[in-house]
Amino acid sequence: MRRFAVTARLRPEVAGKALELIAKGPPFDPAALGFERHAVYLSHGEIVFVFEGEEVEWILDEMASEEGLAAAFREWEPLIEGIPRLAREEFFWQREDLVQG
């Protein structure tokens, strides 16, 4: 499984609106797109969207190019400062007894 994160700086004083958008859930069906897991992390001043799946890089590329899906993310535009960045996983650890065999 591959993992990618999209990170972005938040504008000052938008944490409440960010929490509202997160509570609504993703503006797409993660399973229908082929994701196996999706999580959102919020810190003071930054948001991180984590996507997991076998073809996650291809799925994210498709999401960015499809008008309907790209439009769904427009609610985030006023909250974000600068350009979001894509981060590839470079290290992952998991306890051996948790590995499915």
Query: Could you give the order of the helices and strands?
Result: EHHEEHHE
Report helical residue fraction: 25-40%
Helix-and-strand structural type: alpha+beta
Report the top-level CATH class: Alpha Beta
Q: Give the end-to-end Cα distance, rounded to a whole number of Å.
A: 14 Å
Q: What is the CATH architecture term?
A: 2-Layer Sandwich
β content, as a range?
A: 25-35%
Radius of gyration: 15 Å
Q: Largest sheet, order of strands side by side?
A: 2-3-1-4
Largest sheet entry: 4 strands, antiparallel
Counting DSSP E segments of at least 2 residues, the number of strands comes to 4
Question: Which characteristics define this entry?
Answer:
single chain; alpha+beta; four-stranded antiparallel β-sheet
Polypeptide structure, described:
The chain has one domain (2-90): Alpha-Beta Plaits, CATH 3.30.70.100. It has helices at 15-23, 30-33, 56-65, 67-72; strands spanning 2-10, 37-43, 46-53, 80-88. The chain is of the alpha+beta class and 101 residues long. It has a four-stranded antiparallel β-sheet with strand order 2-3-1-4, with helices on one face. A hairpin with a 2-residue loop joins β2 and β3 (46-53).
A few lines on this structure:
The chain is α+β, with helices and mostly antiparallel strands.
